[in-house]
């Protein structure tokens, strides 16, 4: 059982305030300035029970720091098109072991049939996109793969410009 001390102050008209102190026996009382560690988290849905997994029934909105003032040694991604072609996109079926470990197929969070990339392919052709988890399995940083795709599009655009120039922009 988790015990949490709840301290709430309410201000009333006329400048008076009342402080309530209570003892809660559930994790529903969290202080906003605190740091917390949980096994798994469900937002608007049940937690999966898989350590480190977060599931949300609604949208998750977040932003990554990307301001140039936080970066140095900025360079174009070389050979992006070759990496994108080599990594490709795949459809696949998750193994029964994977599905079981993630609470079973539910058609929403866990589906037997899925699509994405294969981490080993990404590791071979663009290792910056891959992380090794504590259990030695590989994970892909999908959000950052869009930068690789942008660079590949830029390379394709350059090829189009060069071909148009060769053809006299007919």
Any overview of this molecule?
- The protein is an alpha+beta fold.
- It is 28% helix and 21% strand.
- A hairpin with a 5-residue loop joins strand 1 and strand 2.
Short summary:
The protein is α+β, with helices and mostly antiparallel strands. The chain has a domain at 76-170: Arc Repressor Mutant, subunit A (Orthogonal Bundle), CATH 1.10.10.
**Total number of helices:** 4
Main sheet summary:
2 strands, antiparallel
Structural class: alpha+beta
Low-confidence stretches: 1-12
List the helices and strands in order.
Answer: EEEEHEHEHEEH
How far the N terminus sits from the C terminus, by CA atoms, comes to 75 Å
Overall pLDDT? 85
């Amino acid at each position: 059982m988790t015990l949490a001390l709840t301290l709430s102050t309410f201000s009333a008209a006329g400048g008076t305030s009342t402080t309530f102190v209570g003892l809660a026996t559930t994790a529903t009382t969290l202080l906003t300035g605190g740091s917390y560690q949980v096994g798994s988290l469900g937002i608007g849905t049940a937690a999966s029970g898989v350590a480190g997994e977060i599931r949300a029934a609604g949208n998750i909105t977040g932003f990554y720091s990307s301001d140039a003032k936080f970066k140095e040694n900025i360079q174009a991604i070389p050979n992006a098109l070759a990496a994108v072609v080599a990594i490709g996109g795949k459809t696949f079926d998750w193994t029964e072991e994977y599905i079981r470990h993630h609470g079973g197929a539910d058609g929403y969070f866990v589906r037997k049939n899925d699509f994405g990339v294969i981490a080993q392919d990404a590791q071979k052709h663009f290792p910056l996109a891959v992380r090794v988890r504590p259990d030695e399995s590989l994970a892909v940083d999908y959000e950052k793969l869009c930068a690789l795709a942008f660079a590949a599009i830029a390379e394709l655009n350059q090829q189009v410009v060069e071909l148009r120039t060769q053809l006299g922009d007919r």
